Sequence to fold (176 residues):
Amino acid sequence: MIRRWWIAGVLLIAGVAAFSAIGANSRPASEQILPSPLLYRQAPALQGQSLAGSGQISLASFRGRFVLVNYFASWCTSCAAEMPQLAKLARSGTVAVLGVDYDDQASSARSFLARYGAAYPVIEDPTGQNSVRWGVSAPPESFLVAPDGVVIAKIVGATSLSVVSDLVQLAKSKGY
Fold:
Protein backbone atom coordinates (compact mmCIF):
# COMPACT_ATOMS: atom_id res chain seq x y z
CA MET A 1 0.00 0.00 0.00
CA ILE A 2 2.79 2.44 0.89
CA ARG A 3 4.61 1.49 -2.28
CA ARG A 4 1.56 2.47 -4.42
CA TRP A 5 1.32 5.87 -2.71
CA TRP A 6 5.03 6.37 -3.18
CA ILE A 7 4.78 5.57 -6.95
CA ALA A 8 1.71 7.83 -7.30
CA GLY A 9 3.61 10.65 -5.57
CA VAL A 10 6.64 10.24 -7.84
CA LEU A 11 4.41 10.23 -10.95
CA LEU A 12 2.59 13.35 -9.74
CA ILE A 13 5.87 15.19 -9.12
CA ALA A 14 7.21 14.09 -12.53
CA GLY A 15 4.01 15.29 -14.23
CA VAL A 16 4.16 18.67 -12.52
CA ALA A 17 7.85 19.03 -13.42
CA ALA A 18 7.18 18.17 -17.07
CA PHE A 19 4.25 20.58 -17.29
CA SER A 20 6.36 23.32 -15.67
CA ALA A 21 9.22 22.74 -18.10
CA ILE A 22 6.88 22.97 -21.10
CA GLY A 23 5.24 26.12 -19.73
CA ALA A 24 8.57 27.77 -18.98
CA ASN A 25 9.81 27.21 -22.52
CA SER A 26 6.70 28.28 -24.43
CA ARG A 27 6.05 31.81 -25.63
CA PRO A 28 3.26 33.73 -23.95
CA ALA A 29 0.05 34.22 -25.92
CA SER A 30 0.89 37.92 -26.14
CA GLU A 31 3.74 37.10 -28.50
CA GLN A 32 2.14 34.55 -30.78
CA ILE A 33 2.60 35.48 -34.38
CA LEU A 34 0.42 33.11 -36.33
CA PRO A 35 -0.12 32.19 -39.98
CA SER A 36 -3.00 33.74 -41.86
CA PRO A 37 -4.30 33.50 -45.43
CA LEU A 38 -3.86 37.28 -45.53
CA LEU A 39 -0.09 37.18 -45.07
CA TYR A 40 1.97 38.62 -47.92
CA ARG A 41 -1.17 39.74 -49.77
CA GLN A 42 -2.79 43.11 -50.15
CA ALA A 43 -4.82 43.91 -47.05
CA PRO A 44 -8.58 43.49 -47.46
CA ALA A 45 -10.66 46.63 -47.68
CA LEU A 46 -11.12 48.21 -44.28
CA GLN A 47 -13.32 51.22 -43.80
CA GLY A 48 -16.12 52.39 -41.61
CA GLN A 49 -17.60 55.08 -39.44
CA SER A 50 -15.20 56.67 -36.97
CA LEU A 51 -15.98 55.72 -33.38
CA ALA A 52 -15.35 59.39 -32.54
CA GLY A 53 -18.09 60.40 -34.97
CA SER A 54 -15.76 62.30 -37.27
CA GLY A 55 -16.79 60.67 -40.55
CA GLN A 56 -15.41 57.69 -42.41
CA ILE A 57 -11.99 56.13 -41.82
CA SER A 58 -10.22 53.92 -44.34
CA LEU A 59 -7.04 51.86 -44.13
CA ALA A 60 -6.21 53.17 -47.60
CA SER A 61 -5.67 56.64 -46.12
CA PHE A 62 -2.65 55.27 -44.19
CA ARG A 63 -0.87 54.11 -47.35
CA GLY A 64 2.87 54.80 -47.17
CA ARG A 65 3.14 54.03 -43.44
CA PHE A 66 3.34 50.89 -41.34
CA VAL A 67 -0.09 50.34 -39.74
CA LEU A 68 -1.09 48.07 -36.89
CA VAL A 69 -4.74 47.13 -37.42
CA ASN A 70 -6.03 46.10 -33.99
CA TYR A 71 -9.37 44.39 -33.40
CA PHE A 72 -10.46 44.96 -29.79
CA ALA A 73 -13.52 45.12 -27.52
CA SER A 74 -14.22 46.86 -24.23
CA TRP A 75 -15.34 43.55 -22.65
CA CYS A 76 -12.09 41.78 -23.56
CA THR A 77 -9.63 41.39 -20.65
CA SER A 78 -6.65 40.75 -22.93
CA CYS A 79 -7.55 43.93 -24.82
CA ALA A 80 -7.43 45.85 -21.55
CA ALA A 81 -3.98 44.39 -20.88
CA GLU A 82 -2.59 45.55 -24.24
CA MET A 83 -4.34 48.92 -24.48
CA PRO A 84 -1.72 50.97 -22.55
CA GLN A 85 0.94 49.53 -24.88
CA LEU A 86 -1.08 50.37 -27.99
CA ALA A 87 -1.69 53.92 -26.75
CA LYS A 88 2.06 54.31 -26.21
CA LEU A 89 2.78 52.76 -29.63
CA ALA A 90 0.45 55.24 -31.34
CA ARG A 91 2.15 58.17 -29.57
CA SER A 92 5.63 56.87 -30.49
CA GLY A 93 5.09 57.37 -34.22
CA THR A 94 6.84 54.04 -34.98
CA VAL A 95 3.67 52.78 -36.60
CA ALA A 96 0.16 54.12 -37.09
CA VAL A 97 -2.48 52.29 -35.08
CA LEU A 98 -5.95 51.76 -36.53
CA GLY A 99 -8.43 50.19 -34.13
CA VAL A 100 -11.52 48.23 -35.09
CA ASP A 101 -14.23 47.92 -32.45
CA TYR A 102 -15.28 44.25 -32.44
CA ASP A 103 -18.77 43.15 -31.35
CA ASP A 104 -19.17 46.01 -28.89
CA GLN A 105 -21.35 48.97 -27.99
CA ALA A 106 -19.89 52.24 -29.32
CA SER A 107 -20.38 54.03 -25.97
CA SER A 108 -18.56 51.23 -24.10
CA ALA A 109 -15.70 51.29 -26.60
CA ARG A 110 -15.33 55.10 -26.31
CA SER A 111 -15.17 54.87 -22.51
CA PHE A 112 -12.67 52.01 -22.74
CA LEU A 113 -10.34 53.94 -25.05
CA ALA A 114 -10.60 57.09 -22.89
CA ARG A 115 -9.69 55.10 -19.77
CA TYR A 116 -6.35 54.14 -21.38
CA GLY A 117 -5.65 57.43 -23.16
CA ALA A 118 -5.85 55.76 -26.56
CA ALA A 119 -6.27 58.62 -29.02
CA TYR A 120 -5.79 56.82 -32.33
CA PRO A 121 -8.49 56.36 -35.03
CA VAL A 122 -11.01 53.58 -34.47
CA ILE A 123 -13.55 52.15 -36.90
CA GLU A 124 -16.91 50.86 -35.75
CA ASP A 125 -17.77 47.40 -37.09
CA PRO A 126 -21.40 46.94 -36.01
CA THR A 127 -22.22 44.28 -38.61
CA GLY A 128 -18.94 42.40 -38.26
CA GLN A 129 -18.25 42.60 -42.01
CA ASN A 130 -14.72 43.95 -41.53
CA SER A 131 -13.98 41.26 -38.95
CA VAL A 132 -15.13 38.52 -41.32
CA ARG A 133 -13.05 39.90 -44.23
CA TRP A 134 -9.97 39.91 -41.99
CA GLY A 135 -10.66 36.44 -40.52
CA VAL A 136 -10.92 37.68 -36.95
CA SER A 137 -12.50 35.18 -34.56
CA ALA A 138 -11.93 36.84 -31.16
CA PRO A 139 -10.15 39.93 -29.91
CA PRO A 140 -7.48 40.95 -29.53
CA GLU A 141 -6.10 40.22 -32.96
CA SER A 142 -3.69 42.55 -34.74
CA PHE A 143 -2.27 42.74 -38.24
CA LEU A 144 0.84 44.62 -39.27
CA VAL A 145 0.36 46.19 -42.69
CA ALA A 146 3.41 47.40 -44.63
CA PRO A 147 3.52 50.83 -46.31
CA ASP A 148 2.62 49.18 -49.65
CA GLY A 149 -0.59 47.73 -48.17
CA VAL A 150 0.63 44.15 -47.75
CA VAL A 151 -0.22 42.27 -44.54
CA ILE A 152 3.10 41.08 -43.11
CA ALA A 153 2.17 39.75 -39.64
CA LYS A 154 -0.80 38.52 -37.64
CA ILE A 155 -0.66 38.64 -33.86
CA VAL A 156 -3.23 36.72 -31.83
CA GLY A 157 -3.55 37.80 -28.22
CA ALA A 158 -2.32 40.90 -26.46
CA THR A 159 0.69 42.54 -28.04
CA SER A 160 3.18 45.15 -26.89
CA LEU A 161 5.20 48.11 -28.06
CA SER A 162 8.38 46.01 -28.15
CA VAL A 163 6.84 43.17 -30.20
CA VAL A 164 5.42 45.56 -32.81
CA SER A 165 8.61 47.65 -32.93
CA ASP A 166 10.66 44.47 -33.47
CA LEU A 167 8.32 43.38 -36.27
CA VAL A 168 8.64 46.78 -37.96
CA GLN A 169 12.45 46.66 -37.71
CA LEU A 170 12.47 43.14 -39.17
CA ALA A 171 10.15 44.23 -41.99
CA LYS A 172 12.37 47.22 -42.79
CA SER A 173 15.44 44.95 -42.88
CA LYS A 174 13.59 42.78 -45.42
CA GLY A 175 12.89 45.74 -47.68
CA TYR A 176 9.34 46.69 -46.71
